[in-house]
Amino acid sequence: MARHVVARVDELDIGKSKLVKVAGRDIALFNVKGEFFAIANRCPHEGADLCRGQMVGLAESDEPGQYRMTRHGELVRCPWHGWEFDIRTGKSWCDPARTRVKSFDVTVTKGGALTEGPYQAEVFPVSIDEDYVVVEI
Amino acid sequence: MNEMVRSLGKETGLSTVGGIDCDLHPASPATKTLLPYLDDYWRETFVMRGVDRLSLAMTSSPARAPINVRSEWKATSGFAGDTLETVRSQALDPFGTRFAICNVLHGSMIMHSDDMAAALCGAVNEWLAREWLDKEQRLRGSIIVSAQNAELAVAEIEKRAADKRFVQVLILAQNDEPLGRRRYWPIYEAAARNGLPLCIHAGGSNRHAPTATGWPSYFVEAYVAQASIFESQLLSLISEGVFHKVPDLKVVFAESGFTWLPSFFWRADKTWRGVRAETPWVTEQPSDIVKRHVRFTLQPVEAPIGTDALARTLEHIDCDDILLFSTDYPHAQFEGLNALSANFGETLARKILIDNPLATYSRIAADFGKEVAK
After folding, report:
1. Which ipTM score applies to this complex?
2. What is the CATH number of the domain that holds A73?
3. Which residues of chain B lie closer than 8 angstroms to A62, CB-CB?
4. Would the N or C end of chain A have less CB density within 10 A of its end CB?
């Protein structure tokens, strides 16, 4: 496992996502209410880019005709067929056991700390005062 | 006679002795026959208007159409299955039937007048109780109702449910609106409250074209279209949340066929994944809901006979609980006594004949249990 610096925190606003390439893999990075999450970018259904999906809430109901939106912005809808994936876990809502994408640990770290640790920041000139998103693969 | 017809004739079915026939049709009664079972208002006005001379049988099932009645079951006078004696000698005795559910398909189920429909449905149910169920212990009844007025349908269900020989509520597949819609929910709640499955039988009002593309010209089109009608109704029940709202409801599809289920499952499950947020009360894939709540009568089986195609279809359906034995008497769906194809195998045949019907019809199970205890 290695830690990869993939973005500066201020590059990704709340409610936004972006594609990052880490160690030859395509990873979808999301900012959910200030927290960062990373999942494999490829939808297991037909291969669409999950980083291009809408970040949505979870629609729930206690009975027909009643609607409740919870977990705002915590799911991503695949841009092709609308399957929903939990950004926190990579599991699909409809079939969490079998239809899922890999989820990666993400941390936010000060540039100053990065220059000292075992980080791979090949594409980033790291500045001591900035915050960085670090994905562990 | 071509090869296929010849092989159909030769097929050896499995024994049906001791089975529960979940779809048997006594002939729709002549309107005059119903007069004693109507109240004095309807009796007098029917005679005054000549309604007693009309046939109120449904036009989708003309008595002389070749597939509607098997040639050896045709009545010399009157209609096939119009006397208890013929039903005994042609259906109950030869198949060794333990119990048979009488589904009387009558025009009252689809009449425009709410009140006349309810009066006639009530009369048919009373006629069935007096003329058939009182006289033959093997027969059970379906409470026919007109779905268009839920309040009147509920009243009939509540009244008739006290008679334990009525084992389900019967409506038709084509109605004014898709069957999942809320106007029909009181009917489903009344059925479930009384422990009665809701049977949805092929046919209906034809207030809409039976195909989604418009009016067809020929019976073959209308008959084949029934499968797509059932598919639409099944998805309506699921999507509108009927099984969420009435979790105890069991639904029986009669004469719907079932070999269309695998493609329905695949398409419904897959599409649900993409658009399920629109119906957030549907929290399981449609196929799982069907397997828990919906059953299908056996005949007509629309699969090639004498091949393993049926076994492959059953593998795709992946549920041994959903088929209920039926002869669909007196309609012509198979030859001889071969209502139960050998392709089912002995184990599944037993489930289809006995176990699945008993699990579906608690009222029959109660009587079946009493007999075993004796």
Report:
1. 0.87
2. 2.102.10.10
3. 281
4. N
